[in-house]
């Protein structure tokens, strides 16, 4: 049995992007035990898949970052892994992997040091769908290629004529000044227009979405028989995946539910503003990016040119009519 350590720090969306990499490893080494080191905020990814056998929770965003990384090294040494695969473009990652004492080490090529310390330093190509970028890490060890996330949730019977809306984004991104979605007022207008067009509208949200959900509910006719409020009824990411699977169509922001929808193969419409849809959604007719015609010269800018969004947010001036027109076709 091959013992494999995979390291991928980021939000839940990043972990879903990473799933194809782990799935291909499991196909290549079917009797392997895969342990994923990730941030505590993203641990629910394990509920979506059976390819992850164990988790190391490493809080690299907390106050004790270096202690947490030392904890990772010590845990890795105690477990005696055969192979480690790590994402991330930091030049120090190759040193971290060398410190684990693991014989086979795979990561991105960040310079001469990585080429010296890693078994194979893989070129980092950020100009592609994120799943493919992560999957490049395992090309030295497998010919299997898993294109899209796959999750351990069965396909669902569809609610007839239904459109599910998940308007939220993480509070962490908002607190950091990364605005990535339209306002609650516009979301409410989208719901009203869909109801006017005879659609059965479902509304869902996570723990971070209480404010936007409250504002939406105050503006729509919650007594309409074609409106169903599922906020608070999906208790886990797996519950949300089941609900997404039941919807004929799904509208969301650039957030983790988008990547769940890709895995569930539900027709999905995504609000995109400052981020790059070409890197965050697959090239598929099943996923449609809805963008403003703002002609911003540096769009997409978030993470490409700046770490926070600008004040004007012209890229998110998307009307409810535009959204509904896209959904109704």
How do the helices and strands follow one another from N- to C-terminus? EHEEHEHEHEHEHHEHEHEHEHEH
Task: Kindly state the percentage of residues in helix.
Answer: 25-40%
**Poorly predicted runs of 5 or more residues:** none
Describe the largest sheet. Answer: 6 strands, parallel
Strand content: 15-25%
- The gross shape turns out to be globular
| Total number of strands | 12
Query: What strand order characterises the main sheet?
Result: 3-2-1-4-5-6
Number of helices: 12
Determine Rg (CA atoms, Å).
21 Å
Q: What is the arithmetic mean of pLDDT?
A: 96
Structural class computed from helices and strand pairing: alpha/beta
Q: What's the N-to-C terminus distance?
A: 51 Å
Describe the structure in your own words.
It is a single chain. The protein has 329 residues and is α/β, with parallel strands linked by helices. It has 12 helices and 12 strands. Helix 1 (12-28) packs parallel to helix 10 (256-264) and helix 7 (184-196) packs across helix 12 (320-328). It is globular, with a radius of gyration of 21 Å. The chain starts with a strand and ends with a helix.
